[in-house]
């Protein structure tokens, strides 16, 4: 059976049994499975234009790794807009609703007369409702962002590359995943080199 | 030949700029450019991406300098005073403070409002300036956010211990209990519990999220050194194995992926968007503790905006108070935290200081215009009564001292900014003292008039809380990235995908 992986789920696919990466079609001379082809670039402009080429070549499972977010890279990569705002917004509103219901329910359970005001008046409950909405929204944003990214995770094969560690410093990388349907090591290498990559290497799992 | 940026040429043509005007940036470190068409550089010294990483990670790897250990030990011993005083308070009772029947809130709540206010600058920098696309915030946001967390820790302690029986403090939360007692959700004191705990939590999440990529940088550097050492190259630093493990845990597998950055930036914007109303709500709710009472001097509608402006004012003073010495002590920090950054913050001090001054004036105007005898009496008593010295300390520190910044030379001098920030910090503590104690110490009947005298326990608890704050901040500078490395790199001109090597400089 061949599932196509929904675009937004690329990053969490490894966690879902039936979407899990299949055994690699390619192995290195050392007998290890190929994870990806990794290409190194020196400037943001280089990696940006190379990303446009990889996008136009029709690859689906690939990524750009940069020390900082590059402005407009999501367009160069053809990334769909994230659903994170919907997650944060709905959980935030849910948290606010929870706050209001909590206060109404507690006031019903334990009514306290305060200046003879009606028990069910919503006005004095505004601050706590607001704060609980914000609190839930903040947790949803952080946890949602990490979950959609498939984080936290203990290890990733890309860290097997020694050169890749400079990604957090001043180097820019494109990695085309061996799980991509179009993946063919030589074609990928040629594409990346023609896009201006400096060093290109195979990353083993 | 230098090529003129098109915008620069247009601005010059339109404005007919005075000869030599654009050269004013030559004074100082070259960032104090007054020509609005020229963007001041945010990172100096011709630093590359690699240099930024090296400088900032250097503080966490090699330490900020020899002064760090003695300074931290000194701060920690002051901090231990808090432990002693709080322990003494708990085993004895709140009677060890100078509270009386009439003045039943004094230093405890003053310290609470003082510390919680200091936190607000961090959130303003990380959230509001982010929404306003003020790129200079990247140099100060990490340390200011850290300050927020540490200030809220100090703040949270005071209401916790002033309840008297601290082992009953859990009753502040809506927790089911066998007495079937629930908190009163119509009390501003309870709103405060929710506001402050939400603020502490959200600030912590925001701070942590911003730090994930930079901690991952520290992890990768340690890993790289260990791999080089393994391959027979240069030996790794002492403690690199611990670093790789701890920073590895904290950075939860961040691999700088473009798809991740996309969601990360969305998350950052959402957190900035919700932190903005949050920070405004927190100090508004703190002010409700006073404003919803019927005590003359507290019962005013100006309190929420007045408290928020004061909080930002006091917070920025604290940011400057810590960062100006740090700039001298940390090697290479002047390239990342420029005179322009200090000038911008001095301008915020001037703005918020004037807003606070306006609020003080407005309180007096309303006391007269409102034609309420008690209100009028409280304000006359504030300025001329037994606490006149506190009132005038507040006015001279908060309203008069920042007015120096109207003069360009003063707001561009780190020394003057530092001195003013000390004054403002003192003034903002006195502001809370004046509001709380001078309103409370004279009630409606002369028989209820009392003076408040702090005891040694009052004083040492506050001094200790300053030690707690400083210790936490010094630990932060030693072990975590004190600049937002990724964000700093992203605002450098080279970071733009449309940047070409030939147009160096302002762009």
Give an overview of the whole structure.
The complex is a heterodimer of chains A (205) and B (507). Chain A is of the alpha+beta class and 205 residues long. Chain A folds into two domains: 32-80 and 155-204, Alpha-Beta Plaits (2-Layer Sandwich); 84-148, no CATH class. Helix content of chain A is 38%, strand content 11%. A four-stranded antiparallel sheet of chain A has the order 2-3-1-4. Chain A is elongated and about 80 Å long. Chain A starts with 33 loop residues before the first strand and ends with a strand. By secondary structure, chain B is an all-alpha fold. Chain B has a domain at 47-172 and 283-485. Chain B is 64% helix and 0% strand. Chain B contains 16 helices and no strands. In chain B, α4 (107-131) crosses α9, α5 (141-162) packs across α6 (188-230) and α10 packs across α11 (373-384). Chain B is globular. At the A-B interface, α1, β2, α2, α3 and α4 of A face α2, α6, α8 and α16 of B.
Structural class of chain B: mainly alpha
Shape of chain B: globular
Looking at the overall shape, the CATH architecture of the largest domain in chain A is 2-Layer Sandwich
Termini separation of chain B: 17 Å
Query: What is the CA-CA span between the terminal residues of chain A?
Result: 24 Å
Can you write the helix and strand succession of chain B as a string? HHHHHHHHHHHHHHHH
- Secondary structure class of chain A reads alpha+beta
What is the H/E string of chain A? EHEHHHEHE
Mean of residue pLDDT values of chain A:
87
Number of strands of chain A: 4
Average pLDDT of chain B: 89
Counting H and I runs of at least 4 residues, what is the number of helices of chain B?
Answer: 16
